[in-house]
Write a structure and sequence with these properties.
The complex is a heterodimer of chains A (308) and B (280). With 308 residues, chain A is mainly α. Chain A has 15 helices and two strands. In chain A, α4 runs antiparallel to α5, α4 runs parallel beside α8 and α4 runs antiparallel to α12. In chain B, α5 runs antiparallel to α14. Chain B is globular. In chain B, 74% of the residues lie in helices and 0% in strands. The longest helix of chain B has 35 residues. Chain B has a domain of 166 residues: MetI-like fold (Orthogonal Bundle), CATH 1.10.3720.10. The chains are: A mainly alpha (308), B mainly alpha (280). At the A-B interface, α2, α4, α5, α6 and α9 of A face α1, α2, α5, α6 and α7 of B.
């Protein structure tokens, strides 16, 4: 980077060295170094340190930690609250991801159009996803209030009794799922729209010449063409929804009776409320395992597509 | 569906559009309703929210925000954290993206793969250890602690590497014949060509940092270091079921407004950012 300029630069030898500079040169690594340092210090090192912490037993009183092997993991697998959080998280993923795919794709198909109406509608559905979780949960806490909430109010018009969405063991998690779909739907919609716009129009023209029905061209042209995006959305959303945290903390605090407590909330409570650091770290390693599997699946899926 | 545009706007097409418009209205209802509630006196909301349809309306909830609590401090903190994270990400990602995409150095491929693996590491897997590290350094409740973790994410590097790769190679070579140094080539020749990508990555990073909740919740324990997201959330529990509903709604509107304005201004870029990330 501090290469001298001057007469020497004009000599043929110097020019050849210049040419060589296109090849490997350790100084080019300096471009990457600043990021690499932050990356190693704050992502890679914590990853391994977290694995180490998960093998420790912390003593709250004299602030010491001792090596405990896999004790934390064994305890976790016998901890009914933790197992419950795994179940809740999987259930939450099972409720939200299909909604993201079906509603997201339906919206993308309907809004894949030129003109003002399409742009405005896209902006509306995407607009909610720029709000922070705090604002979204304030809004939905209000929607769900049994006595004064809008949903109970509307149900009341039809003579239904007020519904305690967030304090009912059966409804708390679905209520969080509805709020989440409202919040995030714009993202999958946009990903699908991007994919739809990659499909060459000639395919549809040919189908139209063959008098293919809308459904027919959807099944035999659209779906195969967006297969990769479909897969990416599914896996991306599985990973994203596995990280459910803010909505559960702010809407229900994981209740009632643990019915809506997800894994990350468990980690947060163990780690930063009860200071069971080893235990929390072990739980986060289990979460990491789930997500690593999903990430590998995503990598394999995109690679197979690239080759085929 | 694209097929519709070829055979012209059919009746079915108009029906679909109508249905989507209806759904969009439903989508807007929560926001409109909460905004309306924020203009109602708290005393009325204690018993019913039906009164939202008729006066009296008041600005008191908003003047209360301006008068009380740390909202402005939180707003300022969020701005510092989001701007700092964005600036840092752009600098680090551009440098690294250029290094990976357009130069060669020993071990480049290996390092790049190491960085790509990082795309799969979720924040939660490292958060306990990260908290320990910042505790060891006695750095919690500082802007550095709030900003630095946001810079360690490889997404920006990945995005910029892809973008730098798409720029014709001849540009570097021509500049090299003119005796420009590597850094000069990066700074004067190539970087100006990436402004659209910088805007895209910048807005994306800004929104993510502005809305982040988990890390600031853990790292910032003193109210004066809260970001807006954490600060507003900290007041929620006190008001939820009680007399302050209108005030709480006003806080939500107040806190949501800046990011919504950013969205309206940069909508085109935000949407492109999301779409671009999808295509890769």
């Amino acid at each position: 980077m501090r290469e001298g300029r001057g007469l020497a630069a004009k000599s043929p030898a110097r020019l050849r060295r210049r040419g060589a500079a296109i090849g490997p040169d350790w100084r080019n690594g300096l471009f990457v170094l600043p990021f690499l340092l932050v990356y190693l210090a704050l992502l890679v090192y914590p990853l391994f340190r977290g694995m180490w912490i998960s093998l420790l037993q912390f003593d709250m009183f004299d602030q010491t930690a001792s090596f405990a092997g896999f004790t934390n993991f064994r305890r976790l697998l016998a901890d009914r609250i933790f197992l419950g959080t795994v179940g809740n998280t999987v259930l939450f993923v099972a409720m939200t991801v299909p909604a993201f795919v079906v509603i997201g794709l339906a919206l993308a198909l309907a809004l894949n159009r030129e003109g003002r109406a399409g742009a405005v509608l896209r902006a509306i559905f995407f607009g909610t996803s720029v709000l922070s979780v705090t604002i979204v949960t304030i809004i939905w806490k209000m929607m769900y209030l049994p006595d004064r909430g809008l949903i109970s109010g509307i149900l009341g018009v039809f003579g239904a009794a007020p519904v305690p969405f967030l304090t009912s063991q059966d409804l708390a998690l679905p209520a969080i799922a509805v709020c989440t779909v409202w919040w995030i739907i714009g993202l999958p919609m946009m990903l699908f729209l991007a994919a739809l716009q990659q499909i060459p129009g000639e395919l549809y023209e040919a189908a139209a010449l063959d008098n293919a029905s809308r459904w027919r061209s959807f099944v035999s042209i659209t779906l195969p063409s967006i297969r990769r995006t479909l897969l990416v959305v599914v896996i991306y959303e599985i990973v994203a929804q596995f990280q459910l945290f803010g909505q559960a903390l702010l809407l229900t605090k994981g209740g009632p009776n643990n019915a809506s407590r997800p894994i990350v909330l468990f980690i947060y409570e163990q780690g930063f409320r009860d200071w069971n650091l080893g235990y929390a770290a072990a739980a986060s390693e289990i979460l990491f395992l789930f997500m690593a599997v999903a990430a590998i699946a995503q990598y394999l899926a995109s690679r197979r597509r690239a080759e085929g | 569906m694209a097929a519709g545009s070829i055979v012209g706007r059919s009746a079915g097409d108009r029906l679909i559009l109508g249905a989507v418009i209806l759904l969009a209205i439903v989508w807007l209802v929560p926001v409109v309703w909460v905004t309306a509630l924020s203009f109602k006196p708290n005393a009325e909301l204690m018993f019913s929210t039906a009164s939202v349809l008729h006066p009296p309306y008041t600005l008191k909830n908003y003047t209360d925000i301006l008068a009380s609590s740390g909202v402005f401090r939180w707003l300022f903190n969020s701005a510092v954290v989001a701007a700092g994270t964005t600036a840092g990400t752009l600098v680090l990602s551009s440098l690294a993206g250029y290094g990976f995409a357009r130069t060669e150095f020993p071990g480049r491929t290996l390092v790049f793969v190491l960085v790509l693996i990082g795309l799969a590491i979720p924040e939660q897997a490292v958060i306990i250890a990260r908290h320990q590290i910042f505790s060891d350094l006695k750095m919690h409740n500082t802007y550095a602690a709030l900003i630095l973790p946001g810079l360690s994410i490889p997404f920006g590097v990945f995005l910029m590497t892809q973008y730098f790769k798409a720029i014709p190679r001849e540009l570097d070579e021509a500049a090299m014949l003119d005796n420009a140094s590597r850094f000069q080539i990066f700074w004067r020749v190539i970087l100006p060509l990436t402004i659209p990508a910088q805007a895209t990555l910048g807005i994306f990073t800004f929104l993510t940092a502005w809305n982040d909740y988990l890390w600031p919740l853990i790292s910032a324990t003193r109210p004066e270091m809260f970001t807006l997201t954490v600060g507003i959330a900290s007041t929620q529990t006190n008001f939820a079921q009680s007399e302050g509903l209108g005030f709480l709604m006003a806080q939500a509107v107040f806190a949501g407004l800046p990011v919504f304005v950013v969205y309206l201004f940069f909508q085109k870029y935000i949407i492109r950012a999301v779409a671009g990330a999808a295509i890769r």
